[in-house]
Design a protein that fits this description.
mainly alpha; 3 strands; Receptor-associated Protein; 6% strand; single chain; 15 helices
């Protein structure tokens, strides 16, 4: 698919120029006619060679604001039969919509069109649209997708808001500590050396640490860079990601919050899929992939396999209490027996979402005094260590 530059006139003879995505001139011309325009000329856009600027280099796909996806699915649900083309300010998102429109007009399913832009629309969305195309009710599914993405974005924003202040304090303290070690400590060391007095043990240790940091900058940069690259490589490897995903719930404070968020997301995804009449086996696999956690993905694949053999989903999830608490598996079992599985999953999601929100609120209120207290202790130790020799020398003079 490429871009075509067109010149057209409307029914009143007004000239219009623009760019539209398509596979051929004929396809773009047909699309213009459907828009009520008469094509004058349609030419493919030639890519001009130009010098690249450093600021234009982007090694990853452009990030799309989730709010745009929410608006897209809500408006699409409302205007599904109106034939109105949506417009967005984000050029990457608008380009994708244009390409999706042409793809659908060419006779391809809407789900296939979305699948051409997987960096924007996750597998969960594509699977729901596919199910709706087979079973009907696409407008309702689009509304559910919008609500789901909106809640996911709200979770990310709440986590970001809760951790932004601690991150700022941590970075500020790191800058201050580096200033003390690289600027203030050497000056005090020169002053102490001019007196020729014996320094307290704690002060001497601080000076030695400062000297080591200042005299081994290259080694420190290599070690820090090596550790960072090593961690990134480990986290990117299949075994490393699996290890991190399996033990991330055991992290102090943050692990509990991540766990609540993950269970809520899993239950909500499963509920939406089941309401869309996706089979339980496929719904489990999709929910596992959507979780972005290799350990949960492994669990859901195993559970899905057992479900195909006629076993209970709740009974199988009960084997993994480190991820799915007994309450979750029990409610799912009740839902399976009563035929109200989707309702039970929604209750599980709502309960853990409320618990998650409470935990996030407590996190910001709890972590701030802990950080401030810890920083106060560290700063006090540094001040006492630096000024203790001065107090001792002053007492000796008197």
């Amino acid at each position: 698919m490429g871009n075509f530059r067109y010149i057209a006139v409307d029914t009143k003879g007004k000239r219009t120029e623009g760019t539209l995505g398509g596979f051929t001139r004929e396809e773009v011309s047909a699309e213009l006619r459907r828009m009520g325009l008469k094509p004058v000329s349609v030419e493919p856009v030639r890519k001009k060679k130009r010098e690249w600027k450093l600021s234009e280099i982007n090694l990853s796909p452009p990030k799309i604001d989730p709010a745009l996806q929410v608006v897209f699915f809500r408006e699409l649900s409302t205007l599904l039969d109106a034939g109105i083309q949506l417009q967005f300010e984000d050029k990457h998102f608008q380009k994708a919509i244009g390409e999706i429109l042409v793809f659908v007009k060419s006779g391809h399913p809407f789900s296939d069109a979305l699948g051409e832009h997987k960096h924007i629309f996750p597998p969960f969305v594509i699977s729901l649209v596919t199910a709706a195309e087979m079973g009907g009710g696409l407008d309702k599914i689009l509304t559910q997708i919008a609500v789901y993405i909106e809640k996911e974005d709200d979770v990310r924003k709440r986590l970001s808001s809760a951790t932004s202040y601690p991150k700022f304090i941590g970075m500020f303290f790191a800058v201050v500590l580096m200033g003390v070690m690289f600027g203030l400590m050497p000056k005090f060391a020169d002053i102490f050396a001019s007196f020729g007095a014996e320094l307290p043990f704690s002060t001497q240790i601080m000076i030695n640490i400062s000297d080591f940091l200042r005299n081994n900058l290259i080694i420190e940069a290599i070690v820090i860079g090596g550790l960072w690259i090593g961690f990134k490589a480990f986290a990117a490897s299949p075994k490393g990601k699996y290890f991190i995903d399996k033990h991330i719930f055991k992290l102090p404070v943050a692990g509990h919050i991540i766990h609540k968020s993950m269970v809520s997301r899993f239950a909500k995804t499963l509920s939406v899929l089941i309401r869309a009449e996706v089979s339980i086996v496929n719904a489990l696999k999709i929910a596992g992939n959507t979780s972005d956690n290799e350990y949960i993905k492994e669990i859901t694949e195993h559970v899905a396999l057992q479900v195909t053999h006629g076993r209970s989903m709740g009974g199988q999830l009960a084997k993994y209490t480190d991820v799915f608490p007994i309450m979750v598996s029990s409610m799912i079992t009740v839902g399976e027996k009563s035929g109200a599985l989707a309702i039970m999953l929604e209750k599980i999601s709502e309960f853990h979402e409320a618990d998650f929100n409470t935990a996030v609120d407590k996190l910001s209120k709890t972590i701030e005094p802990i950080i401030m207290g810890g920083l106060g202790v560290v700063i006090s130790i540094i001040i006492v260590t630096l000024y203790l020799p001065i107090f001792q020398m002053s007492s000796a003079i008197h």
